[in-house]
What we know:
The chain is α+β, with helices and mostly antiparallel strands.
Amino acid sequence: MDFRTILSNFNVDGEFVSCEPYGSGHINRTYAVVYKTDKGNKRYILQKINSTLFTNVDGLMNNIKLVTEFNRSEIIKRGGDPLRESLTIVYTKDGKTYYKTENDEYYRVYIFIEGAIGYDVVEKPEHFYESAVAFGKFAQLLDRFDSSQLFEILPNFHNTVKRFENFKKSLELDKLNRAKNVKAEIDFALSQEKYVSTIVDLLESGKMPWRVTHNDTKLNNVLIDTKTDKAVCVIDLDTMMAGSICYDFGDSIRFGCNPCLEDTPETEKVVFSMPLFEEYSRGYLSVFGDTITDIERKNLPMGAILMTYECGIRFLTDYLDGDVYFRLSREGQNVDRTRTQFKLVKDMHEGYDKMCNIIEKY
Ligand code: ADP
Ligand code: GN1
Ligand code: MG
């Protein structure tokens, strides 16, 4: 089915002009759509939802609807602009949050947030600081949201113990005989076993609180205003579920405290940036510092190590499985992604005490 026909099922204004691939997400397929109206061109985001992963699209979209509506009313209360500071779902003509085609493809449409972009690498430290404030505020907002309404969309998403087990299963199977190409990475992955249960144990024993978390807090999931350099909106709400705040903090660190792209083939240039770690910590704790518990605060550095490690074994597992999960634009990309993560993990272990001191400072 062509895009124009798909879009004709949604409440979009004007006349169709174009629909082009947009952004750099690894999971859904995202397009920027242009419509011509009397007041000039208007843009939308069209997404083909990855329904292989999100098998309950109804549950997924209901989560997003609940959170964006809650968000919207909070933004209006404080006098903000909900069309810019929150994702806004564009409904179908029959009032649904998504459209299903005859071939069982699922599409959704959001209002395009103009004048803001998601960065794949930190270009200015203030962007990273701003993203920390945005994710901190988002966490605080969700603290008041009734989490029992949310459907658990991807159970065990950040259960590092289960991720490690999955990695070992794929390694044992080695169905494409690829393990021989990544021996050093496999050895490193196995060497970290002693850490994998740290956060899971704290959550399961009740020592660390479960919270409603975003679970995919990388820098390109916050849109930053191109004129003011201020964070505008937290996006990509697909993985909102109960989790640990240490993982949300940690995923931002994993992605942002690296001068290179996540998939750089030049692993030798990857180095963990302590100054950027400090920027993010300062921003995050400036808004979430009063809410965070002692045990969470003390485990923020470990959250960063574990999220980076977990992401590394997810990329490695995907390589062993035949690159079936994360979208690739070239061969070997999952190996490069793995190497980047593992180099960062090594640097973080070395800098662990410094990371802890920075957290205590703020
Ligand atoms: P994925 O789950 O595949 O990462 P995202 O929801 O993060 O998909 O969208 C991919 C990219 O599209 C984002 O990184 C961002 O650049 C852009 N994007 C998504 N939603 C919007 C929006 N409402 N307005 C402007 N840009 C958006
Ligand atoms: C995926 O969808 P996207 O590109 O924002 C993945 C995250 C990984 C990330 C690595 C649902 O995020 O968990 O950390 O890639 N999302 C899902 O870049 O698996
Ligand atoms: Mg994304």
